Amino acid sequence: MSAGNSGITNKLSLSAWVKATTAVIGGTTSVAGAYNASAGSSGFGLRFNSATSLDFTINNATNAANVAGLSPTNNWIHFVGVYDGSLASGNITVYANGILGATKFNFTTAVAFNANTIFSIGNWFSGSSGTNTSVVGLVDEVALWNTPITANNVQTLYNAGRTAASSLVSPSSLILWYRCGDGDISPTIKNYGSIGSHKIGRAHV
Q1: Is the pLDDT score of 129 beyond 50?
Q2: What gap in Å lies between CA 173 and CA 49, rounded to an integer?
Q3: How many helices (H) and strands (E) does the chain have?
Q4: How confident is the model at residue 204 (pLDDT cuts 50, 70, 90)?
Q5: CA of 117: how far to CAs of 16, 139, 182, 183, 205, in Å?
Q6: Residue 203: what pLDDT?
Q7: CA dihedral for 136, 203, 141, 68, sign (positive or negative)
Q8: Fewest C-beta in 10 Å: which of 16, 17, 89, 139?
């Protein structure tokens, strides 16, 4: 996935539901994200940095908004990360179960992409070695927009539940949408978003 075919430069939103079946190992346990295989962890993603907290990162862990006090083991949690680098303040925002967790201000750098950027679900893809830490559990309804969705949009997604359509929100900007089981035939995970030919690089769902 590249900036050219995704429409992403400095605006995006990423949504996913996750339920861990064993305690999360913090650090680089990724729920979903796009990571630049030739430039370490450049890209974006939702990842646990401890058993009870999650970051939404842009390009690296320094540029992240964090939500804490989570209980993901055997509980479904809905996460949304939103980045609007076109704002003077460059807001990076993360939500959990429809509620604002945190906002990091003053970051306006474009998201790092190249032709080798890999979108992953359920694990963290980092560097040419492909090292990763997988979520042991379930990930569902992963969606990526090339626009910042609103707080009301986030609430709509959460209230609709994980069996509802992510296309309820900004459908023209929904570029990746993996339903993770609804109509899929293992081991293929179909993308229902506008980049229909995009393939999952690594998936642990």
Answers
A1: no
A2: 29
A3: 2, 12
A4: very low
A5: 19, 21, 26, 26, 20
A6: 40
A7: positive
A8: 89
Query: Residue 41: CA atoms inside 13 Å, Cβ hemisphere, count?
Result: 22
H/E element, 103: strand 99-104
- For 79-85, what is the mean pLDDT? 94
Tokens at residue 172, please? 């023209």
Which residue do the tokens 């900007």 mark? 173
Q: Take residue 195 and report the two structure tokens written for it.
A: 């980049």
| CA-closest candidate to residue 56, choices 24, 18, 30, 75 | 30
What is the per-residue pLDDT for 49? 82
Give the HSE-up count for residue 3: Cα atoms under 13 Å, Cβ half-sphere. 12
Q: Tell me how far CA of residue 12 lies from CA of 56, 57, 64, 102, in angstroms.
A: 11, 12, 14, 17
Between 157 and 181, name the one with better pLDDT: 157
- At residue 37 the predicted structure's pLDDT band, cuts being 50, 70 and 90, is low
